[in-house]
Amino acid sequence: MIRLLKIVAAVASNRLDNLIDPERSSFWLRCVLVLLPWRYFIRNDAPRGERIRLSLEALGPIFIKFGQILSTRRDLLPDDISDELSRLQDDVPPFPVADAVAIIETSLGSEVNSLFAHFDHEPLASASVAQVHAARLHSGDEVVVKVIRPGIDRVIRKDIQLMYLFARLLITLSKDARRLRPLEVVADYERTIFDELDLLREAANSSQLRRNFLASPMMSVPQVYWDYCRTQVMVSERIYGVPVSDIATLNERRVDMKKLAERGVEIFFTQVFRDRFFHADMHPGNVFIDTTNPAEPRYIGIDCGIIGTLEPEDQHYLASNLLAFFRRDYRKVAQLHVDSGWVPRDTPVGELEAAIRTVCEPIFEKPLKDISFGQLLVRLFQVARRFNMQVQPQLVLLEKTLLNVEGLGRQLYPELDLWTTAQPFLEKWMKDQVSLTSIACNLKEQGTDFLLSAPVIGQKVLSTVRTLVAQQQSLYDQQMAREKRRRKYGRLGMALLLGGIVVVLSSGVVVMNQSMYGVLMGALGGWLIFR
Prior knowledge:
- By secondary structure, the protein is α+β, with helices and mostly antiparallel strands.
- Helices cover about 60% and strands about 10% of the residues.
C-alpha cells in the first residue's frame, strides 16, 4: 500500500495525467481524470520526457532500470521521451557489507577470510541489482566479487505486479495506450531483469565473449573464475582501465581517438556479423579503455548480463538492408522486409517502398559522415510498424546497442564516418558468404552433421516406413472387410428381392396376405442392395 501511495505521489507531482489526451480517451477515463484532486492545485509545465524520467527516478532503482530498457523501444515511443529516458543513471546506495559477506559465504560454503587473501569491505560500485567488491585470491590474482542485492527478487516481483496492473488499466481506459502494447513491454522487462539476477548466466556470457575476442587486439573481456561463481555470486578478473566517457584522461594519455572510435564500430560489426553474439548493454559505465599502448587502444567490456544473438537469416537480411539503404535501393529494402518475414507476406511492396523512401530520403541529404546507423534502424522500425511489423527482441537489442556504439564513437571522435568504417566490413562479409571457401566450409559442416546423424535418420526413416505400411495394411484390411459385407448384403438382398417377386407373382390377387409378404421381402431386398 505504501508503495502504491509513493507511485501516486510521483504521478501527481510530475502531472503524468496530462500526458493523456481526454478527447481520445474513453468516457470512464475522462471521469477519472476529472476526479483527480491534484489537477486543481499542482502545475508542472516541464517537457513530458523530463517528467516521466523524474517520476521513474523518484520511484527507485527497479523503475529506473525499467526506464532504461523502455528507452530502447524507439519503435514504440516518441524520440523526445526515448532520449530523456536514456539519461537515467542507475546510481544506488550500497547495501551493508555484512549482507554481502553472508551471501558470499552461504553461496560458496566457506568464510570470506578463507576464500580470499583479501576482501575489500568498501564496495567499488553499487547498482540496482548488484554491487561489486574488490578482492585478492590466495593465488595473488586481483579479482572483483559481484553480489546480488539481498531481497531484490521480492522487490522486483512486487513492482512488476504493479506495472502489470497499470498496464492493464491503460489498455482498458485508453485506446492510444493499446498501440504501445504496455503488457508486452512489461513482460520484456520482466524477462530481462530476472535474467540479470542469475550471475551464472552472466558468467557464461562473459566467458563466451572473452573466447570470441581472445586473440583480438581490439577488445578484451575479464576472465571468469568458475570455482567462485554461483547464482548470486560471480568472481572475475579485476581490470584497470579508463572509463570510455573520461575524454579528458584519454586525451591526456594521447590516445588515438580516431582509431579508438573506429575500433568501437568494428567491434560491434564483428560481434554481429562474425559471431552473431553481441554485448547488448554497452553504455559508458560498462566500457573501459586499456591505454597501455595509446597508439593501439583496446576496449575492455564488462557486465555481460544482457547479450543479444542473431539467427543466420536475420544476420543476412540485416547486412543486405544496410547496404541497400546506403545505396538508396528502397525497393530492395522493402522486398527484403517481405522476404525475411519481418512484415506480412501480403504487404504491398510498392507501398512499403514509398513509405521507406519518404522517411529516409531526407536523411541522405546530410553529409554521409553525419548519417546515423541507429537512427536509420529507428526509422525503419517506425515505418515497418505501420505495416504490422512485429519487432523481434534481438532486433530491438541490436538497435539499442548500435545507438550506444554510435553515440560513444561520435563522443570520442566527432568526425567519425561510420559508413566509411562499416562499408568495407559489410561488403567483405557479403562476399565471403558466397565465396567458394565459405560454401565449402558450410558443406563440410553440414556434411559432417549429416554423416553423424545418418544412423539416427535411417532408423527414423525405417520406423516411419513401417508405420506407414502398417497404416496402409490396416486401411486395406478395413476396406476388404467392408467389401465382404457389401457382397454379403448384396447377395442376401438379391435373394430377398427375387423371392419377393416370386411370392407376389405366384400368389395372385386372391391371397392378399401372401402378396404383402412378397412386397415386404422385395422392399427389404432392395434396401439391402442399395446399402
